[in-house]
Write a structure and sequence with these properties.
Two copies of one chain form a homodimer.
Chain A lengths: L4 H8 L4 H8 L2 H7 L18 H10 L1 E2 L8 E3 L7 E7 L2 E6 L5 E7 L4 E2 L12 E4 L4 E6 H10 L1 H27 L2 H18 L6 E3 L4 H8 L3 H13 L3 E4 L2 E4 L2 H9 L5
Antiparallel strand pairs in A: 1-8, 2-7, 3-6, 3-8, 4-5, 4-7, 9-11, 10-11
The structure holds a DNA duplex (30 and 30 nucleotides).
Chain lengths: 265, 265
DNA sequence: GGCTTAGCTTGACACAGCTCAACGCGGCTC
DNA sequence: GAGCCGCGTTGAGCTGTGTCAAGCTAAGCC
């Protein structure tokens, strides 16, 4: 087997996009990438608790998509729901528009996370999901996933877990939006990102944001200017060093402190 | 069969609590109440798309709980997850505490709605659910529900639908919290309640709030004083007539208008 | 190089909604 | 009845954050 190409894929999201592009070329890598067994994300992603032979079955229904370029949409709000998508590399944002108004950014998806879960049981996707950078995903047709989960309780359990996790994340977000100050929101955002990177085997202290300040502001319910100002302040306070989209977390402890301080509003 | 006691149960939540209490006495009613076929909520609740004989199977696993009194908790954050609960009458609020801080109210549950879905796949409930008034619920042990859903695709589909609906509601809430003014939040809250009552066969114009101003404020991310002030303003504007917890919606059109007006922040 | 453009930062100011404080009202206990 | 308590209302002032406006930076492109 040699190198595991899926690791390259994962890393590519935080390195030059060109890397991902070159890697796409070979059919051999393409084959390997679609196999859950060789995927470095398998411990985080859907098939968590599956036996090897069950994983084969899952592999069989998963479709590999051509990489999305920055700005490409994976699916659009209102289009028929067919599949959920596991991010392999890169990152996505989910947006919803209500009543023709402006867009609300409701989620970011990093590698191993599942997009499209909120369309399950519905005729169409309730939001638009767009790539923030060159991004590869595994498409999992839901009808086939459901059929498979009929015989694989582990898989079903994992699906439930993924859905309820997203619900709990939403609750945390609601709490953030209704009770936290701008400082706390940004501190929470960074500690959360840091944690998600750490779980995926990356440095929790040094990473590149794939989203713009406007995206961050939209997501956190803040004006762009506020995001910018507070980032500046964090910098002078020695909490982080930010240069464009490059982030270095200098004092994670303090950042967590800010994120969680109580009764300050 | 005569009268359908489940209708009484439903109505009792908006009438004197004592009614609910007296109705509990008879074992015969108690039996009937647990049967989905005779339940007036069945078209809204989980078993939506089931055949009669499948519904029998569902009936068999559902446990009827003693009515909760106002302030009683259905389950507490951190206790082991075992069941989801369908509200039969009354109403519930869900709260989550994070890091020992103050509580965040994340949801209200009305008859036919399911509480506890966000614990699915987890070891413990991620929030505490408390009765806002005398409330009856159907307990649905999740392991048995899951076992049953293995053979009943319709049931499984309905479960997915319920979960993804809650996710979409959360998204709408996030939008409300991050983009809407206090006026819009309250208008949204009332139009939403009105709609939910209408769907359940009640007047969409006249109802009684089971939650306090503090609950509303907590839920909407507003100070109690703001809730009170804006309610007062709505009243002088002729949108609603509020007396304590009794609400009359005078101009639903205008209220919807306020709730949905764009770009006002 | 210079131009353009998107994204980001900084400053000045306004205001929505929070906080603090006082008060009113109904229900409860003694 | 008196006192108490939970809940709701109202007022006055303060402040965090949005808005508007201007300028900056870096990347892409000719």
């Amino acid at each position: 087997m040699g190198d595991n190409p899926s690791i390259l894929w994962l890393e590519s999201s935080f390195m030059e996009d060109s890397m991902a592009d070159t890697a796409t070329g070979s059919p051999r890598t393409l084959l390997n990438e679609t196999r859950c067994q060789t995927c470095s994300l398998s411990s985080l992603c859907l098939p968590l608790a599956l036996e090897l032979q069950d994983m084969d079955q899952l592999d069989a229904i998963i479709r590999r998509r051509a990489p999305l370029k920055k700005g490409d949409s994976l699916f659009r709000q209102g289009t028929p729901f067919t599949s959920v998508f596991a991010v392999r590399s890169g990152s996505l944002k989910q947006m919803t528009t209500e009543g023709g108004g402006e867009e609300q950014l409701t989620n970011f998806y990093l590698p191993s996370e599942l997009a499209g879960l909120d369309g399950i049981g519905e005729a169409s996707y309730p939001g638009t999901v767009v790539a923030l950078e060159t991004t590869t995903v595994c498409e999992i047709p839901f009808d086939r996933l459901e059929a498979l989960s009929e015989t694989l309780p582990e898989l079903r359990g994992q699906l439930y877990r993924s859905m309820s996790k997203e619900m709990r994340d939403d609750r945390r977000m609601m709490r953030l939006l209704s009770r936290k100050t701008a400082d706390q929101r940004l501190a929470t955002f960074f500690t959360n990102l840091s944690d998600r990177f750490r779980r995926r085997g990356y440095s929790p202290f040094s990473f590149r944001l794939s989203m713009s300040r406007a995206d961050i502001g939209n997501y956190l319910g803040l004006a762009v200017e506020t995001v910018s100002r507070i980032l500046g302040r964090f910098q002078t306070q020695g909490l982080v060093a930010v240069s464009g989209r490059e982030v270095n977390i200098l004092d994670l402890e303090a950042l967590i402190e800010v994120a969680e301080q109580e009764g300050c509003r």
